[in-house]
Description:
The chain is about 25% helix and about 40% strand. By secondary structure, it is α+β, with helices and mostly antiparallel strands.
Amino acid sequence: MSREISLLGISYNKISIEKKPDFKGKLQITPSINISSIEKQELSLLKQDSIKVKFSFNIKYSELANILLEGEIILRTDAKTQKEILKTWKDKSLDSEIQSLILNIIMQKASIKAIQLEEEMNLPLHIKIPRLEISKKE
């Protein structure tokens, strides 16, 4: 089933990072995403169906550090998809395809902000960045 969902915007309400200087031990990096609410969003200028998704994105670095990003994304949807999302969210659940789409959008956008914070705080990145390797010609 084809669903029309695209990102219109993202904003952060809370950005928090804490790093403890004396950490010793094995480092385990654990990211998590939580959707706290989904509601209809009125966009009078665009005259399009859209929803607002409030989320939190947390990265825990064992006992070394913690990054927390809280915000909301505005998603443009077709009318049928919007109705389906709002109906299923009443039970705090989502269709797996829609849930995957929404979580991937949050993960992509929040990860960019998290990478900036990780660089500033000298923390290891929570995702692997592709690396180029030059092969020698024979």
